[in-house]
Amino acid sequence: MLKFIVVFTTICSFLEMGMAQKTVVSIKENQFFINGKPTYPNRYWNGKKIEGLLINSRMVQGIFDDLNPESSNEFAYPDTQKWDPNRNTNEFIQNMPLWYENGLNAFTLNMQGGSPYGYGNKKCLNPGFNTDGSLMEPYMARLERILKKADELQMVVILGIFYFGQDQNLKDEASVIAAVDNITNWILNKGYRNVLIEIANECDLKSAYNHPIIYPERIVELIRKVKSKKINGHRLLVSTSFSGIKVPTSKVLKEVDFALIHGNGAKKPNQIQLLIDSTKANLAGRNIPIVNNEDDHYDFEKETNNFLVSINNYVSWGYFDFRFSGETDKKEGFQSVPVDWGINSERKKAFFIKTKEITGGQLIKPKR
């Protein structure tokens, strides 16, 4: 009887993993594939190849919470005058099909979010992990709901682990390592294969991060740690990002599966061109995807802009929208909390109109 129970439990575990593994992201040379086919199959726009790219948006607050009672009321919803992390995740999930059908095939989340004020963290407490690096169950429950929906839609999630202004909540370097181990094991054990890992957002900001293992000189230790973990022959693809218009170091680019760059600070499109060219030079012949997954410059109606320069160079582009100084309407931005996850502002509409034009949009697939 005991033997039967063990076998039955094992079968159930494999079935659970198998059911989760509907969407598999992979990389072949400089192209992204989903379920064995390049993204946006056969798609060209204005003579430029779109097939194989990840057109993404920075949606890092999908599992956000503020555990500091002194600041959480700053993120209250206008209609209820209360902050509600579950409402935030619910509304995120409700809008995912809309993003997808307008051509978005990837988005960025972060275990420790991003600045809920657009830029600057102040006193918000959004740790994602316990101080010893163990996982916080409410965060994981919200994350799993988003990953399940992304899996259903065949969307890719670029999941960041650390964000500056929050990593100090991990008590020491051992806790940082434990956090990487724990989130990697959790994703692999759950069977999600539509997840790309971003170890840290802008790891070169040494004055903002508390733990030197996150700095560019040592972050390869964490990259290798993720790469070393496998279940059933599968491992997670991993990278880390650098700050606006900063070229990733050669040391990091030798280790990552895909290169991450940021366009913040690139007020002129030729600055993006220089960033791309310099990144390719530092790759020293490695033919891997380059993804700009954070760029707060738009001008979508113009003949050239940061989005189009990226596309013209076969680099995936990521929209970063927050509430600018003086903007108070909740519908503005995808990062400032509370977030309106719909496509309800003029900037959001302009981005998704251009994204649908470039990608051709995508059909919502029936539930499997």
Structural description of this entry:
The chain is an alpha/beta fold and 368 residues long. The protein has a single domain (23-359), classed as Alpha-Beta Barrel (TIM Barrel), CATH 3.20.20.80. 33% of the residues lie in helices and 14% in strands. The chain has nine helices and 13 strands. Helix 2 runs parallel beside helix 3 (137-153). The chain is globular, with a radius of gyration of 20 Å. The model is unreliable at 2-18 (pLDDT under 50).
Q: How would you sum up this structure in a few lines?
A:
The protein has helices spanning 2-20, 85-101, 137-153, 173-190, 219-228, 250-253, 269-283, 306-312, 346-359; strands at 25-28, 31-34, 37-38, 44-45, 48-49, 56-58, 106-110, 156-162, 195-200, 237-239, 259-261, 290-295, 316-319. With 368 residues, the protein is α/β, with parallel strands linked by helices. It has a single domain, classed as Glycosidases (TIM Barrel), CATH 3.20.20.80.
Which features characterize this protein?
single chain; about 375 residues; alpha/beta; TIM Barrel; eight-stranded parallel β-sheet; three-stranded antiparallel β-sheet; 9 helices; about 35% helix; about 15% strand; globular; disordered N terminus
CATH superfamily: Glycosidases
State the helix count: 9
Find the structural class using helix and strand composition: alpha/beta
Strand line-up across the major sheet? 10-9-8-7-6-13-12-11
